[in-house]
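seq as requested:
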Amino acid sequence: MERKFKIGDQVVLKTGSPLMTIINDRMGDDPERAYYFDGTYRCAWFTETNEYREIFTQEALKLASRMGKKLTLTYVGRTELTTKYGS
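struct tokens:
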């Protein structure tokens, strides 16, 4: 399977999500599997006080584009801030 993204790319879920950064494009930290790509990416995103990391399939992600898009800020609770890009 060919990679669509690289480490450092900013992505969102196709169904909508906070802005996330690709931090790893393979599973685990086994040096012998460094070039093995299983179709998943580990992404990180942040709130005011927390960092989150989760694994997503390549098919669920798309590159985040700031050009020609408006930024929507959604407050969840008192401290969590979620960013979504939309048209």
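Residues 10-86 form one domain.
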